[in-house]
């Protein structure tokens, strides 16, 4: 793997002086470039959690409870509104567009409109990790992080976003004052977009060269699912 | 240019039997492949329409009036809420997410948050063309088109969307019954996504080969602006 081209393409190098020294796992980033942590691998879903448990071994009771609370028909799957409600018990009420993005990224490969226990447990665990990162950077406990903190938080999640890309991201969360401020909901949305697109790109760039050849069809099929409808 | 590879990649060939014979401009599509009509080229904006007119020669009076009605401070630029209001007089009240997409695609290169008379006139004219296409396919005047009509309408706009891509698009507008139905607002959103992404891809694929090599940075910068925030 060629790492020099990754590390030279972004300014948030592990030694960047404005970053707290405890924010980075140097060893981890040295080998990841911009490509981030391995994606959570949802357990293969069973058709119902009654059948074979469904939840991965060691799933905490509150996660199982949150799922079962909303899966009233005990089908073993929940839809987006139910997911929104289930996450409220552990995190907060997320915007429906964040929920749709989470559904898409953690979806059951056999049913794109619902998720099962395995995916739910993976998603819950991922959000827990992201919540801890968010709180580490929300130093004044305002519930919001600014753009520099966002950059550091994404870096801590394993995504060293190049400056040109980061500028585009920040402009999307600009509140009109020229500054971006993100609450946890927006942070999850933003991070999931970065994670999702990076993972999709990585699938095509198997050699980790930092570029890949895409056909028009594959480009469109990669990108359109991220353009979520909210009706 | 190699056209065979485009035309073989989609099933909506000009001779497809289920399509009305008057829906296609055979000559036009033969040379366009999936790449569509030339984009409207907004006139270069002046800093104020008071300075040099701003509107392209021949702009209809109702277009000028719609713009001036909302540009109350006579700055020569309107923001997204004003655009929403201005389009209401000629078309309808579009969803803010469609407005944001239109702002992005027709934006003034010098000011990404506002558009001027030149861009407004180009946008108005483009919508007029799309409205005519929409109405042609909305045969029962229900105000909605289904997925097959959507495919034909996109084709009439010059976009022969490959089946794999079209399936992804339709799944996004599925109303839960397994069928997609789009009103004019959704049609504009959907069409602008297809147009915008195709135009971006075409910028990179200058040789019209149907594929292109993208760096991670350029891929992310191309795509993220389409992932509109709606707060």
From TrEMBL, chains A, B:
Residue span, EF-hand domain: 58-93, 125-160
Keyword Calcium appears in the UniProt entry: yes
Xref: SUPFAM superfamilies: EF-hand
Comp. bias intervals (Polar residues): 1-14
Amino acid composition bias (Low complexity), ranges on this chain: 29-48
Keywords: Calcium
Gene3D superfamilies recorded: EF-hand
Protein name, UniProt field: EF-hand domain-containing protein
Stretches that traverse the bilayer: none
Record-linked Pfam families: EF-hand_1 (PF00036), EF-hand_6 (PF13405)
A single GO molecular function term of this UniProt record: calcium ion binding
Keyword Calcium found: yes
Residue ranges, annotated region (Disordered): 1-55
